[in-house]
Design a protein that fits this description.
The protein is an alpha/beta fold and about 475 residues long. It contains 13 helices and 16 strands.
C-alpha cells in the first residue's frame, strides 16, 4: 500500500491541538494534489527517461527542452544556460527574488551509456512500465526519478500558491557523470554566486536506497580518483629479450608493490569510526541486538561499512603488448582510488609517484623533453572530492527532513556516508553550503546497472518528501 496519501488529517496529526490548522490544511492539499495527478507525474518521468542524454557526449539540452515544455504556462522562472553541442544547465525557481531563505534542489540530467543494449530485458530508452510498479530504463534511478520529483515539487508549490516566505530553486545540471565541472561546479561559480543566491539548505537527489536497509540520508561521501598509469619501455624482438625493456614487467613490479602505497601518503582518520557507523545504521532497526545479528550474518553490510572508514584502491583495467613475438614497450593500467574526507587527489598522486620512484622507475610527464629509455607517466582520468557535514546532528532542518522521510516511507531512516563521490562536494568543500545532503528515489545497486529501474511508489513518495520539506522549510 502506497504511503504518499492519507485522507484523514487526524491520522497524520493525532495531537492536533499542537499543530496549526493552516499547516494541516496545506499539507493535506499537497497530498491530495499528488494523489490526483500521479498518472501525469509518472508519464513525465517516462518522457525524461525516453529522452536520450547519454554522457558522453551529454545531450542534456534534450532533457531541458522536455522540462521546459512540462512547465509551460505555469508562470515559473526557467533559465537555460547552453554550452557546447546540445548541452545545457538549467535553473528553475519559484520567485524572482532570493533575499529570504533559499532551498536548493540539485539533480543531473545526464546518464551513463547503456552498454550492450542486447543485454537489456527492455530497451534502455523505452521507459517500460511493468505492472504499474516499475519503470525500466537507463537513468530511471540515476537520477531522472529525482529530477522529475524535484521539478514536480516546485510545480505543486506554485500551483497551490501556498504562503511561503522563501524560495525553492531546482538546479538541473549537466556533466555529473563525468565529474560535474561543466555542470554543478559551473552553475555554482557562474550562476548562483553571480546572482548572489545564498542557499540555506541543499538536497542532491542521488539514489539513497541501500536495500535491504531502509532509506538513508547521506551526510557525506568518499572521494573518487581514477588514474591511468602508463609504463614506457623499449621494444625488441623476443628472441633477444634483453635488448628491450618490457613494459608489462614494469607494470607487474608496480602492481606487486601497490600494497605499500599507504606508506607514502599521510595517515588520516575517517570522519566516523566503524563503531559510529554501526550506531548510525542500527538506529533504523527495532533493536541493536537485531542489527548486530544481521551485521554478523551479512558480509555485504560488513564490507560496505568497513569501506567507509578507510582509503581504498583497486586496479581494474590493464592493457599491454601488440604481438606475441615483440617485447612490449607500452602498458596501461587504470586504478580506482576512494578517498576519505581530508584526502585530496594531489596527495594520492604524489604518494604514487614516490612509490614508483622508490621501486626504481623514473616518473615524468609525457610533455617533458627528457631522453630516458624507460619511464612511467600518470594521467588523471576522473576525480571527485570527498566531503562531509560533520555537525549535522545540531541541525533542526535535517531532523525535520528525517521525520518527514520516516512518515512517508513508514520506516525508520538513518544517516550514512556514501562510498562514491557526488556533486555534493562542490557545495560543502567550497564553503557555499555545508548543510548539503543527498537523498533520492532509487537503489544504489541499480546505478549504472543493466536493466536499471525505479519503483513507482518510491518515486511518488519522493515527490511528497521534497514537496512537504520545501513547504516546511520555506513557510
Amino acid at each position: 500500500m502506497t504511503k504518499y496519501y492519507k485522507s484523514s488529517i487526524h491520522s497524520f496529526y493525532p495531537d492536533i491541538q499542537k499543530t496549526s490548522i493552516t499547516k494541516i490544511m496545506s499539507e493535506d492539499l499537497i497530498r491530495k494534489e499528488i494523489e490526483t495527478n500521479k498518472n501525469e507525474y509518472i508519464e513525465f518521468l517516462r518522457r525524461l527517461i525516453q529522452t536520450e542524454s547519454y554522457n558522453p557526449p551529454g545531450n542534456e539540452k534534450n532533457v531541458a527542452i522536455v522540462i521546459e515544455d512540462y512547465l509551460k504556462n505555469q508562470n515559473i522562472n526557467f533559465e537555460v544556460f547552453p554550452f557546447e553541442e546540445n548541452r545545457a544547465n538549467v535553473l528553475i525557481y519559484l520567485k524572482s527574488k532570493f533575499n529570504d531563505k533559499n532551498l536548493l534542489y540539485n539533480a543531473h540530467m545526464d546518464v551513463v551509456p547503456p552498454g550492450n543494449e542486447e543485454d537489456w530485458k527492455y530497451p534502455p530508452l523505452s521507459a517500460y512500465l511493468k505492472r504499474k510498479k516499475l519503470i525500466f530504463g537507463r537513468g530511471s534511478s540515476d537520477m531522472k526519478a529525482a529530477l522529475a520529483a524535484m521539478v514536480i515539487s516546485l510545480k505543486i508549490l506554485k500551483k497551490l500558491n501556498l504562503k511561503l516566505s522563501g524560495n525553492l530553486i531546482v538546479n538541473a545540471v549537466a556533466d555529473e557523470e563525468t565529474g560535474g565541472k561543466l555542470g554543478t561546479k559551473w552553475c555554482l561559480e557562474n550562476v548562483l554566486k553571480t546572482k548572489n543566491i545564498k542557499s540555506n539548505f541543499i538536497i542532491v537527489g542521488e539514489p539513497s536506497g541501500l536495500a535491504p536497509l531502509p532509506k538513508a540520508i547521506i551526510i557525506g561521501e568518499k572521494g573518487h580518483l581514477l588514474l591511468k598509469i602508463i609504463t614506457h619501455g623499449k621494444s625488441a624482438h623476443s628472441m633477444v629479450p634483453d635488448m628491450g625493456i618490457n613494459a608489462i614487467y614494469m607494470m607487474s613490479k608496480i602492481i606487486e608493490n601497490l600494497s605499500s602505497l599507504d606508506n607514502f601518503i599521510p595517515n588520516i582518520e575517517p570522519p566516523f569510526s566503524l563503531i559510529e557507523l554501526k550506531n548510525l545504521v542500527s538506529s533504523a532497526f527495532p533493536s541493536n541486538e537485531i542489527f548486530e545479528k544481521i551485521f554478523d550474518e551479512q558480509p555485504l553490510l560488513q564490507n560496505f561499512l568497513a569501506s567507509l572508514t578507510k582509503f581504498t584502491k583497486s586496479l581494474n583495467v590493464i592493457n599491454g603488448g601488440i604481438k606475441g613475438n615483440i617485447i612490449p614497450d607500452h602498458c596501461e593500467a587504470i586504478m580506482d582510488f576512494r578517498l576519505l574526507p581530508g584526502q585530496s587527489s594531489k596527495i594520492i598522486l604524489e604518494g604514487l609517484k614516490k612509490l614508483i620512484t622508490h621501486i626504481g622507475f623514473k616518473v615524468k610527464e609525457l610533455s617533458e623533453d627528457i631522453d630516458i629509455d624507460s619511464f612511467v607517466s600518470i594521467e588523471v582520468y576522473e576525480e571527485g572530492a570527498a566531503s562531509v557535514w560533520k555537525d549535522y546532528e545540531n541541525s533542526d532542518e535535517i531532523k525535520e527532513f528525517k521525520k518527514i522521510v520516516e512518515d512517508i516511507y513508514g520506516k525508520k531512516s538513518f544517516f550514512a556516508l556514501a562510498p562514491g563521490s557526488t556533486d555534493s562536494h562542490y557545495y560543502r568543500n567550497s564553503g557555499y553550503c555545508l548543510k548539503t545532503i543527498h537523498f533520492g528515489p532509487g537503489k544504489a545497486a541499480d546505478m549504472h546497472a543493466i536493466n536499471e529501474s525505479i519503483e513507482i511508489e518510491d518515486f511518488l513518495n519522493s515527490i511528497l518528501v521534497y514537496t512537504l520539506f520545501a513547504y516546511q522549510f520555506l513557510k
